[in-house]
Amino acid sequence: MVPIPSKLVLWTGEKHCGKTTSAANLVTIARGEGFNVAGLLAPALYRDSELLGFDAIDLHNETRAPLARRKTDAGKTERFTFLPEGLKLGNAALSATAAKSADLVIVDEFGPLELKGRLWRENVDSLLASSSALILLVVRQELAGAVRRVYTDFPCRNLAAIEPESIDKVIGMLRDCRQSQRETK
């Protein structure tokens, strides 16, 4: 029996360990290999070692917008204010139109809000249902099990974001997918 290829990759690691940075490295390498990459990166913004918030970068056209900023009266819930321009950019970056010709779609990040059905959840659900691209979700390690339970219908692979061989594994998956597509033509 031939194993079903994974359509979903969980790019996991501890909070603030470099998941986004390694995903950005993956983007560079994948593009260098001729793969079309779409989706969203959300790099953290710091000042004097203090987390200020996150920006959104559309990987299709490299546009950037402020996504979230830390609230000054931050409590234990909703520590960030999400900004309309970043949400608009993120939704456009994760749309079926933006991902139409993509080989790889990155979603940074899929976290507690998405697990509650908010933020990028609808986009991810739609992409998994309609796109032929490999979908890579940047996920905190402690949430990986919950994300897997949400997407039990999709073959899933968990990769440690900060392990150098994880990039090679994703590139291998993309090559395998490209080869399968050539064989079916």
Question: Under the CATH scheme, which class?
Answer: Alpha Beta
Q: Total number of β-strand segments?
A: 9
Inertia-based shape: globular
* Helical residue percent band: 25-40%
Beta fraction: 25-35%
CATH architecture identity: 3-Layer(aba) Sandwich
Which spans have pLDDT < 50 for at least 5 consecutive residues?
A: none
The number of helices is: 7
Number of domains: 1
What is the string of helix and strand elements?
EHEEEEEHHEHHEHEH
Distance linking N and C termini: 22 Å
Biggest sheet character: 9 strands, mixed
Q: What is the CA-atom radius of gyration, in angstroms?
A: 16 Å
Average pLDDT rating: 92
What CATH calls the topology is: Rossmann fold
Q: Which structural class best describes the helix and strand composition?
A: alpha/beta
Fourth CATH level, the homologous superfamily? P-loop containing nucleotide triphosphate hydrolases
List the SSEs and their pairings.
Layout: E1 8-13, H1 19-32, E2 37-41, E3 44-47, E4 50-58, E5 64-70, E6 80-82, H2 84-93, H3 96-99, E7 104-108, H4 112-115, H5 121-130, E8 134-140, H6 144-150, E9 156-160, H7 164-184
Parallel strand pairs: 1-8, 1-9, 2-7, 7-8
Antiparallel strand pairs: 2-4, 3-4, 4-5, 5-6
Fold and architecture overview:
The protein has 185 residues and is α/β, with parallel strands linked by helices. It has one domain (8-25, 40-184): 3-Layer(aba) Sandwich (Rossmann fold), CATH 3.40.50.300. 38% of the residues lie in helices and 28% in strands. It has helices at residues 19-32, 84-93, 96-99, 112-115, 121-130, 144-150, 164-184, and strands at residues 8-13, 37-41, 44-47, 50-58, 64-70, 80-82, 104-108, 134-140, 156-160. α1 packs across α7.
